[in-house]
Amino acid sequence: MGALDGKRVLLVIGGGIAAYKSLDLIRRLRERGASVRCVLTKGAQEFVTPLAAAALAGQRAHTDLFDRADEADIGHIKLARDADAVVVAPATANTLARMAGGHAPDLASTVLLATTLPILIAPAMNVRMWLHPATQRNLALLRGDGVAVVGPNVGRMAEAETGPGRMAEPDEIADAVEAVLAGSQEAGPPSLAGRHLLVTSGPTHEPIDPVRYLANRSSGKQGHAIAAAAAAAGARVTLVSGPVTLPDPPGVTVLRIETAREMLAAVEAALPADIAVFAAAVADWRPESLGDQKIKKGPDGPPPLRLTENPDILATIARRSDGRPPLVVGFAAETTDVIAHARAKIARKGCDLIVANDVSAETGVMGGDRNSVHLIGRDGTLETWPTMGKDEVARRLVARLAELGPSP
Ligand code: CTP
């Protein structure tokens, strides 16, 4: 028994390179027991043919609004009714705009305007088009109309750009169809539209003299991935980043700093925020001032390196009496007794949630692409996530923040 046994899906294929994945989606939906009828936009037919869609669906595909045979056979109003759900994949920026504006110049948009069935869209477009305020505005309107959204994912795109905009994978879309048909309004990650998210990321560099500094092995990958995922979920994002070699995540305001004290100043300047995530590996100490000139070797041997404590940025913000972000999330980088240390840290720092990870050398977390994290709540609740890519950790965390954070 497939999870979609007996269900009828009307699949609207939009005009984007991701249309090739929609052919696979037809198969995945049918494997789960659904019958699939396809409508292709004119743009879609530049990428895949109606014949291919029809062959995979096992029934003819529809393309024209004023097709005499079609209208005699089923008609666009019937198309809009004879299904259990409508899926738009890929949903291009143009399709979203038409849907949000109620325009109906072709068969696909007419069906979408005429239907009262649950609609699921799987957006796919260039990063900049996705992040454009017009697209985000259209998306917010559609969500308000009860349209469910799956994806887009963050990753490499056809134009060799990286960022949010890649269509969700066929299996993810099929899962979302199941969720929609099970009555869930929100198939994709909850939206952070209208909220300001502040993220710290990367190491800090603490100067010893004008040419030397103390640092740590943080790459900034996890913090930057969180900023990117939050932007993809519609948040306005400010990323305060120490020195890293990563590109700026698209659609994110990046404030670059070097030292812990500069990071604190930048964070305070970026407030107010609805949610603050402190993923930076801030140096706990900085060298006491050794002067403005390069320290030279001399007869007295190595210079004394005296350290002084840096401000704790997370604790400072979490303990503010005014302007504290309603949801403050810390990270705990531990090499032993990860959970016990992280539980102590949540109390010491005054944050609402801690993401604890084991950064001992053998885990390869520092600088690597994967992460194993535990989520610990203020009441001591613990969730252990399987090891996964830092992008996936970011997406899941952002989905949790959207649930837990303040409403816009
Ligand atoms: N943090 C911070 N400012 C600091 C030190 C840490 O904002 N000066 C934040 C980190 O961004 C992280 C959390 O505090 O969210 C915990 O950082 P971690 O290095 O694990 O803890 P420490 O405060 O350094 O505590 P310990 O030395 O006991 O591990």
* Cα Rg: 25 Å
Q: Name the strands of the widest sheet in spatial order.
A: 12-11-8-13-16-17-19-20
Poorly predicted residue ranges: none
| Percent in strands | 15-25%
Instruction: Indicate the CATH architecture of the largest domain.
Output: 3-Layer(aba) Sandwich
Topology, number of strands:
21
CATH homologous superfamily classification of the largest domain: CoaB-like
Tally of individual domains: 2
Class by alpha and beta content: alpha/beta
CATH class of the largest domain: Alpha Beta
Bound molecules: cytidine-5'-triphosphate
Q: Which whole number gives the mean pLDDT?
A: 90
Morphology:
elongated
Key features of this structure:
five-stranded parallel β-sheet, 2 domains, binds cytidine-5'-triphosphate, Rossmann fold, alpha/beta, 408 residues, 23% strand
